[in-house]
Write a structure and sequence with these properties.
Protein name: MinD-like ATPase involved in chromosome partitioning or flagellar assembly
CATH topology: Rossmann fold
Helix content: 25-40%
Strand order of the largest sheet: 3-4-5-2-6-1-7-8-9
Radius of gyration: 21 Å
Number of strands: 9
Number of domains: 1
Distance between the termini: 76 Å
Largest sheet: 9 strands, mixed
Number of helices: 11
CATH superfamily: P-loop containing nucleotide triphosphate hydrolases
Organism: Friedmanniella luteola
CATH architecture: 3-Layer(aba) Sandwich
CATH class: Alpha Beta
Length: 261
């Protein structure tokens, strides 16, 4: 009886308390994963302004038109993946915790399980020398900027960012919010009809951030593709107009990097 009493007192005192996930998240500095790209590995972050706006499509197009070996690192939870059907070969889940597949010469890495917050995303695995890593951020900007993780470091760092939105009045409003939160953005990619075909109301909804990018020649219109809009990304080839828009983004990114030197 005395032994039971001592055990109960120990439990009441918290000696056998198992730390919960909430306790762990209370000290994110201790759980923070770090990531540093390899020498010579360029990094571009693609941030979607709202769900299903085409950010994963732009990310894959950028990797597919890279000048050298490239990969897409999709950082959203596996249940929200836009790239799950985009591979032509699946390589399984690696010890790093990333599910890996290939699409031609492009490596596609996706979170496998257990990711419910940005800080749960493991750091990208190291591998063969890559010319380009495209980070498909996959989280709302306010979520990323309100936490501490390697992905937030990338967004707040010097790596160029591409903000993706849809050519609607609400879409451009969301884009303006993202532009104001991210600070300097290399390129705004707006999915929709050619700029000359934008209705007056749409052009009039451009905010100060988008107007600045447009004045600097850093607005790229990504052509809307009906098949992609209906089926999403799969193993079929990306449409030529999309790849051409990706090449235009690459040119702007290269010009911006040249100006920083």
């Amino acid at each position: 009886m005395a032994e039971l009493r001592r055990a109960w007192e120990a439990v009441a005192d918290g000696q056998f308390q198992i730390p919960s996930s909430i306790d762990a998240s209370a000290s994110p500095q201790q759980r923070k994963a770090l990531w540093t790209p390899k020498d010579g590995e360029r990094v571009v972050t693609v941030a979607g302004c709202v769900g299903s706006c085409g950010a994963s499509t732009v990310a894959l197009a950028l990797a597919s038109t890279a000048d050298g070996p490239a990969r897409v690192v999709e950082c959203c939870p596996s249940t929200a993946s836009g790239l799950a059907a985009a591979t032509t070969a699946e390589l399984g889940v690696k010890p790093s915790g990333w599910a890996e597949g290939t699409r031609g010469d492009v490596i596609i890495q996706r979170t496998s399980s257990g990711v419910i917050r940005p800080e749960d995303v493991p750091s990208p695995p190291s591998g063969d020398q890559l010319a380009l890593t495209v980070l498909d951020a996959g989280w709302r900007t306010e979520q990323l900027l309100d936490t501490i993780c390697w992905l937030t470091d990338q967004i707040r760092g010097d790596a160029p960012a591409v903000a993706v939105a849809v050519a609607t009045v609400p879409g451009l409003r969301q884009l303006e919010v993202v532009l104001s939160a991210l600070g300097p953005v290399a390129v705004a990619a707006v999915v929709g009809p050619a700029y000359r075909r934008w209705p007056t109301a749409l052009k009039g909804s451009r905010g100060a951030g988008l107007r600045r990018l447009e004045a600097a020649g850093r607005l790229v219109v990504v052509p809307h593709d009906r098949r992609l809009a209906l089926h999403g990304l799969d193993s079929t080839p990306l449409p030529a107009p999309l790849l051409e828009a990706a090449r235009q983004i690459h040119s702007l990114l290269a010009a911006g990097e040249g100006n920083q030197r």
